[in-house]
Amino acid sequence: MQHVKNFFKSIYAVPAIIAAVIFLAFFPHSTKTTEVGVRVVKWSPLAKSGIVRQIYAPGATYFFPPIINEWYTFDTKLQNMEMTIQEHGARQERDDLVFKTIDGNDISLDVIIAYRINPQMAPDILEKVGKNNSELEEKIIRTVGRSIARDLFGELKTEDFYVAEKRTEKAEKAKEMLNQALNGYGIIVESILPKDYRFNQAYQNAIEEKKIADQLAERYKSETKATFEEYRQKMQGAQGDVNKMIADVDGEFAKAKIGADAYYEQQGMIAKAIEAEGSAEAKGIEKMVEALNSSGGNTMVKLKLAEALVGKKIYLLPFSDNGGIDLKTTNVNELLQTYGINKLSEGK
């Protein structure tokens, strides 16, 4: 009876063993939508041992025995590795960068490094660096990133940390150097973002006091500038009034000058006209004199004299040798009549 029981047990055990063998032979290994898988063959009669260079794509399931194979996955989406003063994730301690500026002041700086894994180099990452993203960050990205970031940001002066452009310039340089160092390990650094920075308390207090002093200085500068602008506007207004007065005087002067010039021109033209008229008359007289002095001049004079004496009475008075009238031979009555004495007597 015992032998029968053992027989039936062995019959039921065979399918279970077969099922177990099949299950182990085709054990599922999956990748998420942003993961790539890397297979390591520990032993196989059909394949060479070691890391398989085949890239197992995201979002898929693959079947192979689990015992003689190892399976690793790497997340290829963009990762942010934070190095800050605040606790975050599994790191329960401050992780910010602490260093000195080039002018000797202590400073701590929060930095975030954004990186991603090159999927095609996942086997190299497993071979050279680590088995997952966490080991990748701890062993190489954090170590190399902190060193390069400290060196480059340490080249800044204390005042330079207040200038965003200078911090950004150093961050770009750090990104370039990190890619040179990490691309060979399958790591691509997308950005380095400097965040908050802190000085030691004594220096921080001095900075705050300086900020207050700078604000007061800027306020005084603004007030001085406003006062200057006010007086400048007043001066411009006064200058405008003066310019208007000058313009008015210049206008009056120009007006008077134009009038004087016009009068001068007018008088000059009149003088020229008079001169021309006189010159013409003189020339006429000159021509007349020339005509009178000619042979026909006497005849013309006699003719004009004759025309003037037409209808007039002419009396001839005898004169003595001494220049007086000779009364002996003069008819006095006729002479008085000539001069109107008789008419004057008649009027009385």
Quick tags:
four-stranded antiparallel sheet; alpha+beta; 4 domains; single chain; three-stranded antiparallel sheet; Tetrahydropterin Synthase, Chain A; 348 residues
What features would you describe in this structure?
- By secondary structure, the protein is α+β, with helices and mostly antiparallel strands.
- The chain has 4 domains: 2-74, no CATH class; 79-199, Band 7 domain (Tetrahydropterin Synthase, Chain A), CATH 3.30.479.30; 203-305; 313-347, no CATH class.
- Helix content is 55%, strand content 16%.
- It has 8 helices and 9 strands.
- The strands form 3 sheets. Strands 6, 7, 8 and 9 form a 4-stranded antiparallel β-sheet that branches. The protein has a 3-stranded antiparallel β-sheet with strand order 3-2-5, with helices on one face. The chain has a two-stranded antiparallel ribbon with strand order 1-4.
- A hairpin with a 5-residue loop joins strand 7 (97-100) and strand 8.
- The longest helix is centred in the last third of the chain and has 92 residues, at 201-292.
- The chain is rod-shaped and about 195 Å long.
- 12% of the residues are buried.
- Mean pLDDT is 80; it is low at 12-25.
Number of helical runs? 8
Give the termini distance in whole angstroms. 217 Å
Biggest pleated sheet: 4 strands, antiparallel
Helical/strand content category: alpha+beta
The sequence of SSEs as H and E is: HEEEEEEEEHHHEHHHH
Count of distinct strands: 9
Q: Give the name of the CATH superfamily of the largest domain.
A: Band 7 domain
Approximate shape: rod-shaped
Unreliable residue runs: 12-25
Note the beta-strand portion. 15-25%
CATH architecture of the largest domain: 2-Layer Sandwich
Question: C-alpha Rg, in Å?
Answer: 66 Å
Give the proportion of residues in helices. 55-70%
Supply the number of structural domains. Answer: 4
CATH topology of the largest domain: Tetrahydropterin Synthase, Chain A
CATH class type of the largest domain: Alpha Beta
Average residue-wise pLDDT: 80
